């Protein structure tokens, strides 16, 4: 007798086929934020989705954050976390801890998880193969060793992709004197996606997307035209960690990334829904 659940599974796969064909051999950059990494179950689901994308021939690049893990480590060593417009004030000691947490702990854990899901992953940070050139970020506030990316060399990432690896990137880099810089992971993902000529940039966080009222999850803004952003900032709708996120979406759209969106990492398989269906979840930037 025909098992109806198998027939539904076959239909789902068939529905995904046009999207698999559309994205075959295309580069998709996924930024995985620290706030969406808190549940082991979800972390596993995200890694399994990325392995699936890679197995169907989509060139997935994973750029990760780890803000909450950095906060925990700083707390353990008695350093207070300070943020200015969503960016961490980073003195020399903090920069070393950021490198230890992001390039050491979080990066290697994600690589191991991808491997557990039968993916082949390669962990990298901005210093590897001189991928990210940085200088001290300029601005009204002194943020210490927060890095502004001046150049991206995509070769280490392309080499990894062309050899069948899923590149997993921690967003720390060093200058020519060996000073460690801390780079916001959203900003790095946007610059890397642009440099790679990526088809998609997906920012995965722990909120539905850009909300009109950040305390009301039903107030999702499904689409934002980048020209509206200055107005949204002025109105105070965009604040805190959302500021670098939105700025980097604007940058990515302006630099030619075809589809840039913020999605909710708490929704199981949100990456697959976003890439392999026409169901719009989260906020799309145009
Ligand atoms: N208008 C807004 N819509 C949604 N989130 C907002 C908004 N303004 C501020 N935020 C805050 O931004 C946070 C997401 O940024 P962040 O904490 O840096 O995430 P991640 O670690 O995933 O990069 C949300 O959890 C929310 O508290
Ligand atoms: C300069 C700056 O703020 N760097 C970030 C880097 C990590 C990050 O961006 O992590 P999430 O994506 O989890 O927020 C930080 O120190 O928290």
Automatic annotation (TrEMBL):
What does the UniProt entry say about where the protein is found?
Cytoplasm
Instruction: Report which reactions are catalysed by this protein.
Output: N-acetyl-L-glutamate + ATP = N-acetyl-L-glutamyl 5-phosphate + ADP
Transmembrane ranges?
A: none
Q: Which GO terms describe its molecular function?
A: acetylglutamate kinase activity; ATP binding
Cellular component terms (Gene Ontology)? cytoplasm
Where it mainly occurs, coarsely classed, is: cytoplasm
Q: What is its EC number?
A: 2.7.2.8
Q: Where, in this chain's numbering, is substrate bound?
A: 66-67, 88, 182
Note the HAMAP family from the entry.
ArgB
What NCBIfam families does the record tag this protein with? argB (TIGR00761)
Please describe what this protein does: Catalyzes the ATP-dependent phosphorylation of N-acetyl-L-glutamate.
Q: What is this protein called?
A: Acetylglutamate kinase
- Origin organism is Fumia xinanensis
Q: What is the lineage of its organism?
A: Bacteria, Bacillati, Bacillota, Clostridia, Eubacteriales
């Amino acid at each position: 007798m025909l098992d109806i659940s198998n027939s539904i599974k076959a239909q789902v796969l068939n529905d995904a086929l046009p999207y698999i064909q559309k994205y075959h051999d295309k580069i998709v950059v996924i930024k995985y934020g620290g706030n969406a990494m808190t549940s082991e179950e979800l972390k596993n689901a995200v890694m399994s989705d990325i392995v699936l994308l890679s197995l169907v021939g989509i060139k997935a690049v994973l750029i990760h954050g780890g803000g909450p893990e950095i906060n925990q480590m700083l707390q353990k060593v008695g350093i207070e976390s300070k943020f200015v417009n969503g960016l961490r004030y980073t003195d020399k000691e903090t920069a070393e801890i950021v490198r230890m947490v992001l390039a050491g702990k979080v990066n290697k854990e994600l690589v191991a998880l991808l491997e557990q899901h039968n993916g082949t992953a390669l962990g990298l940070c901005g210093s590897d193969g001189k991928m990210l050139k940085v200088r001290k970020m300029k601005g009204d506030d002194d943020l210490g060793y927060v890095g502004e990316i001046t150049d991206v060399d995509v070769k280490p990432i392309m080499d990894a992709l062309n050899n069948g690896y899923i590149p997993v990137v921690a967003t720390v880099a060093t200058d020519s004197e060996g000073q460690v810089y801390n780079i916001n992971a959203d900003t790095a993902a946007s610059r890397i996606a642009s440099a790679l000529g990526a088809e998609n940039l997906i920012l995965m966080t722990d909120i539905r997307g850009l909300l009109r009222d950040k305390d009301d999850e039903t107030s999702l803004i499904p689409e934002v035209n980048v020209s509206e952003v200055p107005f949204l900032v002025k109105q105070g709708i965009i604040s805190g960690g959302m500021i670098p996120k939105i700025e980097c979406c604007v940058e990515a759209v302006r630099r030619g990334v075809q589809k840039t969106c913020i999605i909710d990492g708490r929704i199981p398989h949100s990456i697959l829904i976003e890439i392999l269906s026409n169901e719009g979840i989260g906020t799309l930037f145009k």
